[in-house]
Specification:
single chain; Rossmann fold; 14 helices; phospholipid biosynthesis
């Protein structure tokens, strides 16, 4: 099964490096001026194996049997709108972790609507691009509603150091990956503000409760959120400075500047989650506060006070 990666950011490049252990991989990006040097500046220190072919021609990548869409969540709908005809009927695997701000849906709905004849799956879970590219052991969730197609994709995308666990709960898997970014911003804010690890543990725990509550409301299986794509990814991104969402939150808490060129999926997702929760009548105070913090609508001090003075209740 031939494989192409759509999106030559750090994560897409890391996947290309890892999957080239199984055979040739095509990596597509809008800017491939770096390709001659065989090192992507977004993933410094990692040389591309010979089995990875870099191209700026989408038609070349779209000829593969399976395409991994390694695009930011807020760019996915636009890309699908422009190129659906080249993608429909393929095996499409999204790695985006977010909720679209306009549609208030995850990647699976965007892909299914744009490419109704495609076999759609989601690859998500606790992973950093640098770890995958270096060949460090990583376990991920592969979610596909079609169990037989999921098995085939699982075998095609697994390597000796990249282990995939399969589920048919696409909604739960993609929501776990999206919502954990929001909580990671909150955890980073707590650390940046100097509130300590006990406060971070509280944010992680109560944030996980919010994640599970919303996912169940949207039809996910609660046990999916206790797996790699939920609790696993939440643990990683709330405790490591490799996480862009955690670093962004830490800068908010410390009142420091953050590189505006760095993609922070959780900031946009927080706004989408706040809108979605309001539509559904779900109480998600941490997500709502992250949305306000990211937009500059509340100070860190006032956000903390608001959360700590909420009515007392049972856990």
């Amino acid at each position: 099964m031939s494989i192409a990666i759509i999106g030559a950011g750090a994560f897409g490049t890391a996947l290309a490096v890892a999957l080239s252990a199984n055979g040739p991989v095509t990596l597509w990006g809008r800017d491939t001026t770096w390709a001659a040097g065989r090192e992507n500046p977004r993933l410094p220190g990692v040389a591309l194996p010979d089995a990875v072919a870099v191209t700026g021609e989408l038609a070349q990548a779209a000829g593969a049997d399976m395409l991994l869409l390694a695009l930011p969540a807020q760019q996915l709908a636009g890309f699908l709108g422009d190129h659906a005809a080249q993608l429909d009927g393929k095996r499409l695997v999204s790695t985006a972790k977010g909720i679209d701000l306009t549609r208030l849906t995850g990647p699976s709905a965007l892909i299914s609507d744009a490419c109704p004849r495609a076999t759609m799956a989601v690859l998500t879970g606790p992973s950093f691009a640098a770890d995958i590219a270096r060949g460090l052991p990583t376990a991920l969730t592969l979610a596909c509603a079609d169990a037989d197609a999921g098995r085939a994709l699982q075998h095609a995308l697994s390597t000796p150091v990249l282990r995939l666990y399969r589920t048919t709960d696409v909604t739960g898997a993609e929501l776990g990956g999206a919502l954990k970014n929001v909580i990671a911003i909150a955890a980073g804010t707590v650390i940046g503000a100097g509130l300590g690890d006990s406060a971070r543990a509280a944010i992680i725990t109560r944030g996980f409760a919010e994640m599970t509550r919303l996912a169940a409301r949207l039809g996910a299986r609660p046990e999916t959120l206790t797996g790699l794509s939920g609790l696993g990814d939440l643990t990683l991104t709330c405790t490591s400075a490799q996480s862009r969402n955690f670093r962004f939150g830490r800068s908010l808490g410390a009142g420091a500047d953050f590189d505006p060129a760095t993609t922070v999926e959780g900031a946009a997702t927080a706004r989408a989650v706040a809108a979605l929760a309001a539509r559904l009548g779900e109480d998600m105070p941490i997500a709502a506060m992250v949305a306000r913090l990211a937009e500059g609508g509340v100070s860190v001090e006032n956000a903390i006070t608001a959360l700590m003075t909420r009515p007392l209740k049972e856990e």
